[in-house]
Amino acid sequence: MKGFIRKETWFSLCGLNCALCPMHLGGYCPGCGGGAGNQSCAIARCSMERGNVQFCWECMEYPCARYDGFDDADSFVPHRNRTHDVAEMRMLGLEAYLARTKQKRAILDALLNGYNDGRRKSFFQTAVYLLPLKELESVMDALDGQPGLAAQPVKERALEAVRLLGEAAKRQEIVLKLNRQLKKS
Predict the structure, then answer these.
(1) Contact assessment for residue 169 and residue 130, using Cβ atoms and an 8 Å cutoff
(2) Which domain holds residue 117?
């Protein structure tokens, strides 16, 4: 959509965490309002019609009909925690929320660079997105604390990272498997 530009591209109008989104990480989307990408977004059009609000919850009509069923499925990982992320961002403030997101992004980059056997990208993205920062830091400390792991084949390193992330998810009672989008009748 022509003219839709936002200063903040890591946290979308609707509350999706673009910085940890597979589309953003893969270079397919520049983030909400960052240029080429999902420029036909109805929410972006609505923002422009309402004076370019930075976030939807700043609008007097929020939540509106555009959000009916918005979070019913989570096959697109940022949807699962969108409501939680919005609440947390509002409580912490944008700057603090993005600082924490930057730390999570660094962990994701480390997992993808050192532990991805070519089959774990989606799992790592989901785990980093859903697990609390302290749990992720604990997993990374455990991986770093294993002498000789770095010398192991990437498949072995991947299995260990998956095991530790799975244990962290179990402790937090978080399911790392995504639910596919529901088909409309």
Answers:
(1) yes
(2) 93-178
